[in-house]
Design a protein that fits this description.
alpha/beta
Length: about 500
């Protein structure tokens, strides 16, 4: 059936009418509310105008191209940039990259003694040249995601457990190396490889005009300052930002939530075609805690249900908070003989395991940020007992409990999705996906007492994403007590 043969809902009709007026706007689309269909309807209503659909990765852009008409070009920011940056720069993608140790030697970096916080007190800590070189390389990447015109000392992201005075002096000390590394990256004659972020930044600095009458920017809540800066400078094009502020779960990666920040006319898609009223009511308790005042509506014709008891029967997906918990469940499933697929960051997990193996042998890894600062596995254990180290503690325990060899073997035994009995996923990796029967795991972070709860907005957003992946049933056994308290505090206006 063609897009135009579908009758738009009243909400979709409002969004389409706004788009046809030619002004920039934002469309707040809750989970499962027919966002892509609405964008297709918008483009069908503007057949004589050239459209550009922008996505974050190539797979999404390719899939979108099959859904839109010929008047809409579906691309990523990177593909636009690649076409418009000098070949001398993009050719550098094929050159070998500089390793931290090579960079340290090339830039004559020497060890620096600083103070780090360990167990409530500051102690002396030596930053070796290869660590300093990694800081410089990371700073180039961080600068590339910002709207800044030129690298500055603040782009050097030193670990928070260093003494504040030492962080500032380290930034000043390494700034000449950062500046040099950036200038070499954009020099077509310098024979060192670059990443894709370099040519994207160069394109952004050229203040490009995107060749389209209107731009559909999908998942706008995940935009970083660089992407947002490019779109805000489009004088000739109407920009339609589409997304859900409450699904912004990449703040740690530099996302700045365009859906909340942009002062533009707004339309909303609030009826989910993915699930029925029960799952929507559960999501509204979370949205209410995030200070949302407009409820998400479940599709009345769908009979989806909440399950509050311990897991029983079949399930299609188990959604965890952490890679470590996903790995634990993978190991347990393999022991039982289950065919398990893992929708988590395989590459990151494998690198962590390899880096742990090196540290246990007394060698220092360079390419795993979580472990690159430590000289021994004992150092890692000490760090895990500090406040800052709590995020890697589950992975460290995983290595201690099972050993690096067993973890590597488990990663090799992952079943393809099509052949698996069920999928284990992190909530981050589940974003944009859906399953019939979803089970929420027990590793989300919150504290409860008799009448109150303590949970961060970031964690609430993660739970909102996880709890809106289900179509038929959602098992909330592990978060039931939290949901009870959230429900109690939810105003009547959010109970639909």
């Amino acid at each position: 059936m063609s897009v135009s043969a579908h009758q738009p809902t009243p909400e979709q009709a409002v969004a389409i009418e706004q788009a046809c007026q030619g002004n920039s706007l934002k469309v707040v689309a809750y989970a499962g509310t027919g966002k892509t269909t609405t964008l297709q309807m918008m483009s069908a209503a503007m057949p004589k105008r050239r459209g550009m659909y922008l996505a974050f990765n190539k797979a999404i852009a390719t899939e979108a191209q099959s859904k839109f008409g010929g008047n809409v070009d579906c691309r990523t920011f990177h593909s636009l940039a690649y076409r418009n940056v000098a070949r001398g720069i993009t050719d550098k993608l094929r050159l070998p990259r500089l390793s931290p140790s090579f960079l340290a030697k090339e830039y004559h970096l020497t060890p620096i003694t600083l103070r780090r916080l360990m167990g409530g007190r500051y102690e002396k800590y030596v930053l070796m040249p290869s660590r300093l070189a990694s800081l410089v390389a990371d700073a180039v990447g961080f600068f590339c995601s910002t709207s800044s015109q030129y690298p500055a000392p603040r782009h050097l992201q030193a670990p928070s457990w260093l003494h504040p005075d030492d962080i500032e002096s380290l930034q000043q000390h390494l700034y000449p190396a950062l500046e040099r590394r950036w200038l070499e990256s954009i020099d077509p004659h310098h024979q060192a490889g670059i990443g894709h972020d370099i040519y994207l930044k160069l394109w952004a600095l050229s203040e490009p005009n995107i060749p389209a009458d209107y731009i559909l920017f999908d998942e706008a809540q995940d935009a970083d300052p660089l992407m947002l800066g490019i779109l805000l400078r489009q004088q000739r094009s109407q920009v339609i930002y589409v997304g859900d502020a409450h699904q912004q779960i990449y703040a740690w990666r530099g996302a700045i939530n365009a859906m909340q920040k942009l002062p533009l006319p707004e339309s909303r898609l609030t009826t989910s075609f993915r699930f029925g009223p029960d799952i929507a009511a559960n999501a509204n308790a979370i949205l209410s805690a995030l200070h949302e005042t407009v409820p998400l509506l479940g599709y009345q014709a769908l009979d989806s249900k909440l399950i509050r008891t311990q897991h029983h029967g079949a399930r299609d997906a188990i959604l965890c908070r952490t890679n470590a918990r996903a790995m634990e469940l993978l190991l347990a499933g393999l022991v039982k003989g289950d065919k398990v697929s893992l929708q988590a960051d395989h590459v990151k997990l494998a690198r962590f395991v390899d880096a742990a193996s090196l540290l246990k042998q007394g060698r220092r890894p360079n390419d795993v940020p979580e472990l690159a600062w430590f000289n021994s596995w004992h150092d890692v254990h000490e760090y895990c007992e500090t406040n800052e180290g709590s995020d890697i503690k589950p992975l460290v325990k995983l290595v201690d409990d099972h050993g690096t060899d067993a973890l590597k073997r488990a990663l090799v035994k992952i079943s393809p999705i099509a052949q698996a009995d069920y999928i284990i996923s992190t909530a981050h990796k589940a974003k944009g996906l859906e399953w019939n029967r979803v089970h929420i795991e027990d590793d989300y972070q919150f504290k409860l007492n008799q009448n109150d709860y303590k949970i961060s907005d970031e964690e609430l957003r993660l739970l909102y994403v996880a709890c809106t992946r289900a179509k038929v049933s959602l098992n909330i056994h592990h978060i039931y007590d939290l949901m009870q308290l959230l429900n109690k505090k939810m105003p009547a206006s959010m109970r639909r």
